[in-house]
Amino acid sequence: MDLARFLVGALLVRDAPEGRVSARIVETEAYLAQGDAASHSRSGQTARNRSMFLARGHAYVYFIYGSAYCLNVASARNGVGEAVLLRAAEPLEGLELMRKRRPKAKNDAALLRGPGNLAAAFGLDRRLDGADLCEAGSELYLARGTPPAAILETERIGISRDAHHQLRFLEAGSPFASGPKRPRA
DNA sequence: CAGAGGATCGGCT
DNA sequence: GCCGATCCTCTGG
User: Fold this and answer.
1) Is A7 helix (H, G, I), strand (E, B) or coil?
2) What's the DSSP call for residue A44?
3) A24-43, pLDDT tens digit by residue?
4) Domain A2-171, CATH homologous superfamily name and number
5) What pLDDT, in 10s, does the model give residues A124-143?
6) Nearest residue to C8 (CA, C1')?
7) Could you state, in order of their start, the residue ranges of all structural domains in chain A?
């Protein structure tokens, strides 16, 4: 939860041969190592989720519903399956490349709205699973950004099991966020 | 090996 | 807000 909150306002950068894209994260969700029926790590480590068990700051990228990739940041220590899902971001650099990768986006504010869309605009797939996101200058990394004026906490999205409490974090009033914005700052 | 379900998206009502 | 597409992953027998 600490990392999920911390990452709202942080920057995500990808430097790839096709070009550079960057964005400011506005929405995240926490998936806990203990007592979280919705976490991919709920039944232990598998071939798919092993990166979730890497040390804090590593990427966990998975493929879902046969159509979308999602990017997470591992949040605990090596051996503990816990991560933060990046759900939405504000486009900063490489808008043209993002539009090319996301031709269906209705407008620029929607380019990075939703975890699958964010990953698509960044051109991510399983090749970046396990990458260290803490080294500036590597292909994909996190950097300091501008903190939000206020952070809202809501229930997570798309969870059919037990909805849990407030494990979703988003910048208050952000036009780049996904889903409903319930109160409770 | 078969079966079930999913941390989604986009289109339609 | 509701629903279907799509296919990967895990579980159980």
Assistant:
1) helix
2) -
3) 999 999 999 999 999 999 99
4) Methylpurine-DNA glycosylase (MPG) (3.10.300.10)
5) 999 999 999 999 999 999 99
6) A66
7) 2-171
